[in-house]
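Final report, Chapter 2: Outcomes

The project's central promise was a pipeline that accepts a single protein chain and returns its three-dimensional structure in a standardized token representation, suitable for archiving and comparison. That pipeline is now operational. To close this chapter, we reproduce one record exactly as it appears in the project archive, with the input sequence first and the structure output second.
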Amino acid sequence: MRWKKEMDISVCREGTCLYWDGEAVDYFYYVYSGAVKLQKTTHDGKELTMSLLGQGDPTGECGGLKNGHQCTGWITEAAEIGMIPVRKVEKLMEQSSSLAVSLMKWAGVMSQQHQSKFRDLLLYGRHVALASTLIRLSTAHGKTTEEGISLLLIQNLLNLLVLQEKPSTGP
């Protein structure tokens, strides 16, 4: 794709913030390697993981959002990130209808994923949210084996993905 050729590549360490929730939208990003977590913090300080991105995933906002980014992007594994100014993306979209359609489809899929996470949690509770999250994870990150689908996860990561707090161990 031509827009990837227009990107500057940045090497980011784990723990680096790619962009902040509410920050002005200046760049569109592409994950060449590594991992990025998209996170939203509620008014009462709870951190909600919206998406986990890996190699080949675009991220950022397009379309002239006046309120800035809708979540915070954290590098969770050392990464190579392609960065292209949003204005340049918009110009490329004017020149290439196929790029515009591709980005519109991507934005629609991301919106549907976020809506389904909230719907599952709010309407059906944690158990359905967990089942739905496992299905999404196995589809996106699972590896088919002779025994079925292999999906290696850490409990804390699973807690983040279903938007729940860790169980309390004290009084």
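Archive annotation: The beta strands are 8-12, 17-19, 27-41, 47-53, 58-60, 72-85, 143-145, 148-150.
This record, like all others produced under the grant, will remain available to the consortium after the project formally closes.
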